[in-house]
Amino acid sequence: MRAAGGEVKLGRFISPVAYQAYARGAVAEAEGRLGEAEVEYERAADSDLDGPEPAVALGRVLCQEKRVEEARAAFDRADAADSDSSLLARERARCALANGEVPEALEQSALAMRLDPADDETLVLRADALARANQPREAVLLLVARVLEGPSPEALRLRLLSVAEASNDVAAARIARAAAPRVPVHTPAQNADTPVPTARKDVPVADAKDRKPTLAELDEAITSDDRRAAKHLALRVGLSTSDLALRAALLGRTALAKELAKLVADADPSDTSAWIALALAADLTGDAAAFEDAVRRAPAHPTRLTSLAELALVELLARRAGLDAARALGANLDAPRADAVEDVLRKRVQSRLAAKPRR
């Protein structure tokens, strides 16, 4: 049973053992410890025979380890639980493409698109499969159609630009360069008085083996899209995966935020920071379907919020539910924060909530 938005919904029972194992596997995978992730996903799959997610995750990890036949067996196991899983089709396509099995990648990516046409990650994968199959025109048309729908995530526009340039499609390349980006709420264009803090350039991360990294160094890794460094630094700073997801969303790296937050939220639906990161990433990218899905994931029994998560939730409520709903949380907006990103957010929320209602 799950409660969200005042509505109670019934679903299948998932044992605590499966949840805990999946959570450990998700964290291990996010941090690059694939051997540990494999063990935990296997344990989760054994404890949740009716759900495809643990077996899909196991197959994904096995594919990354180049154990293709074992990955296929894991995917078949997931298929027995749910043959209509878009996640399964997407990961089968990804694994096939990584191993040069282009026809299989085409078939599975097409199925994934039918099952979840709104998913940007699936669309990019489908475009990659088409390009590898010497169908660049079809890949370009697919990407152009999504980019022209409205403000586009950076990954989509860059992929369109890459495919267009490779196929000498001048018109499509021009569209990719001119497409309006999805701008995060904290950018200088929207908040000229509160620029996003950047890391100090004179403190290289590589020389920090014997000291605790700074949040500024972590933020630079996030904003530079250096995922491996971001995950490593977050671990050393002491941030959880859901905290890292939330920070990535606030710094405008919505793809990373969605990836990490979904891993945690799928494994532990009560993790409120992961839920906020999912909702925030969807809101920033203008993805209505993803936002609605995040709302449905609202934890029935929320975990305690960090101060950063609380501020992010206040701002999200202010935009989506109105100032009264945001003010009802009673967040302390007067005290400055040591974390530069958090203090920028505090000032922005303080300014927003102090605004007088329009007449």
Total helices: the number is 19
Task: Compute the average pLDDT.
Answer: 80
Which of globular, elongated, flat, extended, rod-shaped describes the shape? globular
The helicity comes to 55-70%
- Main beta sheet: strand number and arrangement? 2 strands, antiparallel
Count of DSSP E strands?
2
Major sheet: arrangement of strands: 1-2
Low-confidence stretches: 1-13, 182-209
Q: Decide which structural class fits the backbone.
A: mainly alpha
- Our Rg estimate from Cα atoms comes to 21 Å
How much of the sequence is in beta strands?
A: under 5%
Listing every helix as H and every strand as E from the N terminus to the C terminus, the arrangement reads EEHHHHHHHHHHHHHHHHHHH
Distance between the termini: 43 Å
Description:
Helix 3 runs antiparallel to helix 4 (68-81). By secondary structure, the chain is mainly α. Among the domains are: 1-83, Alpha Horseshoe (Serine Threonine Protein Phosphatase 5, Tetratricopeptide repeat); 205-354. The chain has 19 helices and 2 strands. It has a two-stranded antiparallel sheet with strand order 1-2. It starts with a strand and ends in a 5-residue tail after the last helix. Helix content is 64%, strand content 2%. The chain has helices spanning 16-30, 34-47, 53-64, 68-81, 86-98, 102-115, 120-132, 136-147, 154-166, 170-178, 215-223, 227-237, 241-250, 254-267, 272-284, 288-296, 307-320, 323-327, 340-354, and strands at residues 2-4, 7-9.
